[in-house]
Design brief:
The complex is a heterotrimer. By secondary structure, chain A is α+β, with helices and mostly antiparallel strands. Chain A is built from 13 helices and 25 strands. The longest helix of chain B is centred in the last third of the chain and has 24 residues. The chains are: A alpha+beta, B alpha+beta, C mainly alpha.
Chain lengths: ~600, ~290, ~260
């Protein structure tokens, strides 16, 4: 049987990243370390999902070593690297807790074994990235973890900073099993040499440490009690040695018991991974939690009152018209989708969800996420006025804008931060943050109308109007008072009324009288009086109406010559001023028009 | 062109009417062709003086039988055709002052103010050429008045901040959207705390502000300009190509008017006090806020 | 308290209208929203209506529509019955000034954003874009109903409007009265016309009656200020109009003078 040994990385002459620095690249997250661990590993799992859209298993096991397994782990891990002060010896002195996180339906840690070997075309250097490189950009499209800093959390939750990875991948045409230990301790001096604090537990091979491979890996995994692989299956199990379960979250601050930790992990899976856990989606994440042989029940997020509004909002994003998109005209024009769903608040908090709830009380939050469908955070909005009501919203970055949001995420992927962003990324994230905030602010004031008074503010609005326009001047736009040109006005060349039509008494009966002046025309023409009935709005069409005004006739004021009827023939010799009379109607307003028609050339 | 009614009407010189005037604060001002800053909460309180020679009117209209005639002062909306309820008073030889209130809920974008002398009762034995029907218009004049137009106005509303969920100790709050391309008239709102009685009095007054009121309004103006300009600077590179009537366009225009070099202020690390000073100074130069001159 | 309703300009309205074509009533019901990005409001003068109030209005309208068959395409009679019910709901739920109600944008918003499903259901088979995009408030799906209620509602002692007059009118009565701005613009006159029609026993008789009085009334409107008349005077006036012989406007005997007499 091949024996695995620790190999410790010396500091290169040109310097190396200190491993403590890598562990700290996560910063000091606000999140509970177990939440960071679940989010990070679930993200890696999702990124590694096999093509085809099948379900992906994500299983967490927590148990205390005992018996043969304990012995096998001691044999495997000890002795610890000389001078390293990892604390592995102490950790293994008493039976430690180990946590293994395994995924199936995933690709496993494939690619070359050595960091200095180039991957072939289409080959993803997952093994090297996971085991060797830290902080390298991933090559998965729209993956959750844009940079590989996050795996530092695995070493962080191990009291001795030791993890063991056991993976089956397809490598250059065949399945290969790989098992390797890795440690990320503090830098130290030993035998007059400076070491980085990074260690690998494997088989010495050509100046580097390779994992146990295939049969030797399988044999070791069996001895260690690693979860098995079904024939032909690929995937990865990472085991955290001597796991630190942290302290009770928001409670008495005592150390977590394994039972508490299991509850907490289930809770945090639900809060952080629910979009990936929904029925019917591609690469659905099937989560499980096993503690010392006890399996925790992980309910369907859709059936939990606390998560329901979020799930409904998430589903609404897929239905045209059920979501909102912040308006943006320059690419990317659709930066993401937003939906908000109201529901009844739970009467009693579900203890399962309460364990790792990202907020207290009823929901008034927006779950923000990228294409990876892992919750980045829950942004709080204003709580609805009605205590019985909660709402859940979802904002999901669009495919075209995903990278801009990725840029805004800290290594823990739990926020979208503006500082450090420029240009389009800044604009996109600023818009999204503000849009979500505004949407959740609109609920302010509750369901009713605004508590407004009757204060007349038009004067203020007018005064400030200049702030909205280029010219700063309200004035003339409102003043256009159109005085329509008087209908029927003729130019100088036509006949015109010198005495406007009026009602006069003509031998005891009223008639309409007007006096018309005629111009001198070069041709013979007829001038016709055309009386029309004026209605409420316009004039009565000639064919309508029972009674029509009748023209009595023309009489020259110059010569007293009379012409009966509406039409007057006018030539050069005709008198120029004529009185016209029209019989009035008893119940109608009458308007007189004059029309001119040319008869022929002047004699 | 004059339309001829089916009855005799009085000569124009028998009727004398003044122009319309409008009560603004406590003064009667001549009514122009439009009412500045009219909105649905504006009280439109109008009046005019009318006088006529009643006997001569009756003679020239041939209404010597004592039929009641009266003034009818009213209006109709020129856009919807909706009529207002007129004020009706009997005619008198003495000059009369008639007051007309136009309720905002029954107004129009444009109004035609009407003054008429009308017959008040049907005359069943009317002789030919004399008015017969109640409501017959013996004399009338019309004055057009515009209430709304294309002029812009800054969206504002007075609300109770406590009930609204804003800090009740604050006097005003400018709501601005996250998005630059939304219409300005839909996405921006200046909220005035109705609990700040002094500010409410200052902003609702149209004329003759006290020194304190002027100071309050000017301080708010400076604050509003600052918020709009800062809003624009934060998103400056997105404002190059915004919709014409959008909030982004309005804020960008304002920022370029207020700051000589807005690009120089877009770095989030600029000194905040320097920026405030530059904005206030720029605002004052173009007429907003206090003037030290 | 006066409400300011969201307004949707004609350009945005057209864009949305074209986007809504070929949808089913159910699809449109699913897309109905109480808010839209492109809306504007009057700057001042009231309180912006809350989305919840808009949703409450459209919920009420849909509930009413359900009584008349919605979302299943309904007979004309049911759709017209819905109009009457919807007019009352709109008028009660929308606290509008007449200037606000004359703004086409608020009706565009209601028809295209808040309740497009109701428009499609009410106007199934119609291709008239005026039902959706408001250019004439006597034709738009919702504008016409609100204005009908304004024209025909009569105040009662307890402050609640009485809708019985509006309910008594047939579709053709309503159209003929409201399409005349000079008649509908004077609600008391329009109501007097409606009261007169109510005295006619049969639908055909009512149509004849309207045909008789409308042209006569239009002549009178050119020289009579009906706004100074009491309701009784209005009723009397209309009754006379209706009873006058068909040739009411021809020269009466007292006025008759032959031409020769005038020009001798």
């Amino acid at each position: 049987m091949t024996t695995a040994r620790w190999w410790s990385q010396p500091v290169a002459a040109e310097g190396s990243t200190a491993s403590k620095g890598i562990r700290r690249q996560l910063g000091r997250p606000q999140l509970d370390p177990l939440t960071v661990l679940i989010r990070e590993t679930a993200q890696n799992t999702c990124d590694a999902a096999l093509p085809g859209g099948g379900d992906v298993e994500f299983a967490v096991r927590l148990h205390r070593l005992s018996g043969n397994k304990y012995a096998a782990w001691r044999d495997f891990l000890l002795p610890e690297p000389e001078g390293s002060s990892l604390g592995l010896t102490e950790a293994m002195a008493a039976a430690p807790l180990i946590m293994s996180i395994s995924d199936r339906g995933t690709t496993g840690l494939g690619g070359p074994l050595r960091a200095d070997e180039n991957p072939l075309d289409g080959e993803r250097p997952d093994f090297v990235n996971f085991i060797r490189n830290v902080g390298e950009p991933k090559s998965v499209d729209l993956g959750g973890g844009s940079y590989g800093f996050g795996k530092g959390i695995l070493y962080n939750v191990s009291r001795c900073h030791v993890v063991v990875a056991d993976s089956v991948c397809e490598f250059r045409g065949r399945l290969q099993r790989r098992l390797i230990g890795a440690a990320l301790g503090d830098g130290y001096n030993h035998d007059g040499r400076r070491f980085t604090g990074r260690h690998w537990l494997g088989v010495a091979d050509d100046g580097h440490t390779r994992p146990l491979l295939d049969d030797e890996a399988t044999a070791m995994a069996e001895r260690l009690g690693m979860p098995r692989f079904a024939p032909g299956a690929t995937g990865t199990t990472v085991t955290v040695v001597d796991v630190d379960l942290g302290r009770r979250w928001g409670q008495d601050d005592t150390a977590r018991e394994p039972e508490d930790a299991a509850d907490y992990i289930v809770s945090t899976m639900l809060w952080n991974l629910w979009p990936r856990m929904l029925q019917g989606r591609t690469n659905r994440l099937v989560c499980s939690m096993l503690r010392d042989g006890f399996r925790s029940d992980i309910p369907d997020p859709e059936r939990l009152v606390e998560l329901q509004p979020f799930v409904k909002a998430y589903r609404a994003l897929q239905v045209e018209g059920n979501y909102q998109v912040p308006v943006r005209r320059t690419p990317p024009t659709e930066i993401g989708r937003f939906a908000l769903v109201e529901g009844m608040a739970p009467v009693v908090a579900d203890p399962l969800l309460a364990a790792a709830a990202p907020f207290t009380g009823r929901a008034h939050h927006c779950a923000r996420m990228r294409q990876a469908d892992l919750v980045v955070d829950y942004q709080a909005g204003d709580a609805p006025g009605d205590e019985m009501i909660q709402f859940g919203a979802v904002f999901r970055a669009s495919m075209e804008a995903d990278t801009f949001f990725a840029e805004a995420e800290p290594p823990t992927h739990d926020d979208w931060v503006l500082s450090g962003l420029r240009g389009t990324a800044r604009g996109v994230v600023l818009l999204a943050n503000g849009f979500v905030r505004d949407r959740m602010k609109e609920r302010r004031g509750g369901d009713g109308p605004r508590p407004a008074g009757e204060t007349p503010l038009a004067a203020l609005a007018g005064r400030l109007a200049g702030l909205m326009t280029g010219d700063g001047d309200l004035a003339e736009a409102t003043t256009r008072s159109g005085s329509a040109p008087t209908q029927g006005r003729r130019s100088g060349s036509g006949p015109r009324f010198v005495v406007a039509p009026e009602l006069v008494d003509d031998g005891g009966s009223p008639v309409i009288r007007a006096v018309v002046a005629l111009p001198t025309w070069p041709t013979t023409r007829t001038v016709t009086v055309e009386p029309v009935v004026v209605l409420d709005n316009g004039i009565e069409p000639a064919e309508d109406g029972a009674g029509r005004p009748v023209v009595i006739g023309w009489r020259s004021t110059d010569s007293d010559r009379s012409v009966a009827g509406a039409e007057l023939l006018v030539d050069r010799d005709t008198d120029r001023t004529w009185e016209v009379r029209v019989r009035a109607l008893p119940d109608a307003v009458v308007r007189l028009g004059l029309s001119v028609r040319e008869i022929g050339a002047q004699r | 062109m004059k339309d001829v009614r089916p009855f005799f009407v009085p000569r124009n010189d028998l009727v004398r009417v003044s122009t319309w005037s409008r009560l603004v604060e406590d003064d009667w001002e001549d009514l122009g062709a439009f009412v500045e800053n009219w909105d649905y909460r504006t009280r439109l309180h109008l009046r005019c003086h009318v006088a006529c020679d009643v006997a001569a009117i009756r003679t020239s209209a041939r209404l010597d039988d004592g039929s009641p005639i009266g003034w009818s002062l009213g209006w109709r909306a020129t856009d919807t055709g909706l009529l207002g309820d007129p004020v009706v008073v009997p005619v008198s030889d003495e000059p009369q002052t008639v007051v007309l209130d136009i309720p905002a809920d029954r107004a129009g974008a444009g109004l035609m103010l009407t003054r008429r002398i009308v017959l008040r009762r049907d005359r069943m034995s009317a002789t030919p050429g004399t008015a017969r029907w109640a409501g017959s218009i013996l004399w009338s004049d019309e004055t057009p008045l515009r209430l709304t137009g294309q002029g812009s106005a800054f969206p504002s509303e007075a609300v109770d901040f406590r009930a609204y969920g804003l800090d009740p100790a604050v006097s005003w709050y400018l709501e601005l959207p996250a998005t630059t391309d939304l219409p300005a008239m839909g996405s921006m709102l200046l909220l005035i705390n109705s609990a700040d009685a002094a500010l409410v009095a200052a902003v609702t007054r149209q004329r003759r502000h006290t020194e304190v009121q002027t100071a309050l309004v000017q301080a708010m103006e400076e604050g509003v300009v600052e918020q709009l300009v800062r809003w624009a600077l934060v998103r400056w590179d997105q404002l190059d190509d915004v919709e014409p009537d959008s909030i982004g366009a309005a804020a960008r225009t304002l920022a370029t008017r207020v700051l000589p070099d807005p690009d120089g202020w877009t770095d989030p690390h600029v000194d905040q006090m320097d920026l405030t000073a530059a904005i206030i100074a720029g605002a004052r130069r173009i007429g907003w806020g206090r003037s030290l001159a | 308290m006066t409400q300011l309703w969201p307004r949707l300009g004609p350009a945005a309205a057209r864009t949305i209208y074209f986007g809504l074509r070929r949808r089913t009533i159910t699809e449109l019901a699913g897309e109905a929203r109480p808010t839209h990005d492109r809306v504007t409001y009057a700057a001042t003068g009231g309180s912006r209506v809350a989305p919840t109030e808009i949703a409450a209005l459209t919920d009420d309208l849909r509930r009413a529509a359900t009584e008349f068959g919605y979302p299943v395409p309904a007979e004309d009679a049911e759709r017209i019955a819905f109009d009457r019910a919807a007019a009352e709901i709109l008028y009660a739920r929308m606290d509008l000034t007449t200037v606000e109600a004359a703004h086409n944008g608020i009706w565009n918003f209601l028809a295209l954003v808040a309740a497009p499903d109701l428009v499609l259901w009410r106007w199934t088979g119609s291709t008239n874009v005026e039902r959706w995009i408001c250019t004439d408030r006597t034709r738009h799906m919702f504008a016409r109903l609100w204005w009908q209620a304004l024209t025909f509602d009569t105040p009662t002692g307890d402050g609640r409007p009485d809708h019985s007059l509006l309910r008594s009118l047939s579709e053709s009565d309503l159209n003929q009265i409201t399409e005349r701005r000079s008649i509908a613009g004077n609600p008391r006159l329009a109501q007097a016309v409606a009261r007169l029609l109510a005295t006619a026993p049969a639908e055909t008789r009512r149509r004849d009656l309207l045909r008789t009085i409308t042209p006569r009334l239009r002549r009178r409107l050119a020289f009579v200020d009906f706004s100074v008349l009491t309701d009784e005077q209005l009723d009397d006036h209309l009754r006379v109009l209706a009873q006058a012989p068909d040739d009411h406007a021809t020269v009466t005997p007292a006025w008759h003078h032959p031409i020769a007499q005038t020009f001798e």
